[in-house]
Write a structure and sequence with these properties.
By secondary structure, the protein is of the alpha/beta class. It has ten helices and ten strands. It comes from Joostella atrarenae.
Length: 295
């Protein structure tokens, strides 16, 4: 199976439909009891899709809705599936529609009149992240600042900052600055005021813990003009699902002018997971900062 451990959950809806052509002799036999069997079979198929189809993941389904529509000789079954899930639900919906048609055929199998099953189709496929990369602003510039006494002294190698840079490159963001500075509040604040003027993104890594030298939040909070608590919450929530100490991080998010400022953990895993939690969808903020309307 594909690794989806880094994906986030979003609201997903998939709707599939299939049309069956019935012989005139069968139309009077299609009654409520028959649809009940069809509906039961389709629901079971949706619920068990992960055990039948490769790379389909178990989902806590919020809704399975099966409807029928008979027009002349054409009977259409529509299966709608909803869940908060990491992947789309197309396979579940399509399997449900297919089994609905098969159940109908099986119910009428002793009849001489024919049944023709038409093409299976997806009517709707929606997840919260679908198409987001397409609508993100382009030509974004970012500065990455590593706050660490030991790294600035040459005693350790920076890995967290480089992990952040790799994630930014995946979103086609230009890296304008990459610096390593000591855990000094004055230097951290000066860099923020300087680099926020020429960058869309300013990302700090390090200094967000609880040791006496962890001063990045204290340096940034007085100069951040607008905090964005939702970003901070998303980072900690994502991290807490993966390791129990993420709740101790004091990650900060906010704006200075039109620059988004983030203060992320200094560990490599902490920085990587923080980026995974909010990228690329956090880039939607730049549409808003540029005065565009929410979709």
């Amino acid at each position: 199976m594909n690794d989806i451990s880094r994906e986030i959950k979003t609201a997903c809806t998939s709707i599939a439909a299939i049309t069956i052509t019935l012989n005139e002799e069968l139309i009077p036999l299609y009654k409520k009891e028959v649809f009940t069997l069809v509906k039961t079979g389709a629901q079971l198929a949706v619920k068990n899709a992960f055990s039948i189809i490769p790379d389909v993941y178990p989902a806590l389904l919020d809704s399975i809705d099966i409807t029928d529509e008979l027009e002349g000789e054409e009977l259409t079954f529509t299966v709608s599936v909803k869940a908060i899930h990491k992947t789309n639900l197309d396979s579940e919906a399509m399997l449900g529609a297919s089994v609905a048609a098969i159940t109908l055929v099986n119910t009428f199998e002793t009849k001489d009149a024919g049944i023709a099953i038409g093409a299976l189709r997806i009517v709707k496929s929606k997840s919260a992240l679908k198409g987001f990369k397409r609508i993100f602003p382009s030509n974004l510039k970012a500065a990455v600042i590593v706050c660490s006494d030991s790294i600035s002294d040459g005693k350790k190698e920076d890995r967290a900052g480089k992990a952040i840079i790799e994630k930014l490159k995946e979103s086609s963001i230009e890296i304008s600055n990459y610096e390593i500075i000591p855990d000094e509040a004055v230097i951290i604040a000066e860099k923020a005021l300087e680099l926020s003027k020429t960058n869309n993104l300013l990302i700090y890594t390090g200094g967000t813990g609880l040791s006496y030298r962890d001063v990045t939040p204290e340096a940034l909070e007085p100069i951040i003009e607008r905090r964005i608590p939702g970003i901070e919450e998303a980072i900690r929530s994502y991290g807490q699902e993966r390791m129990p100490f993420a709740m101790l991080s004091r990650s900060v998010a906010g704006t200075i002018g039109n620059c988004l400022v983030l203060a992320l953990p200094g560990s490599t895993n902490g920085a990587s997971e923080s980026m995974e939690a909010i990228f690329p969808h956090v880039l939607h903020v730049f549409k808003i900062l540029r005065g565009q309307q929410h979709d």
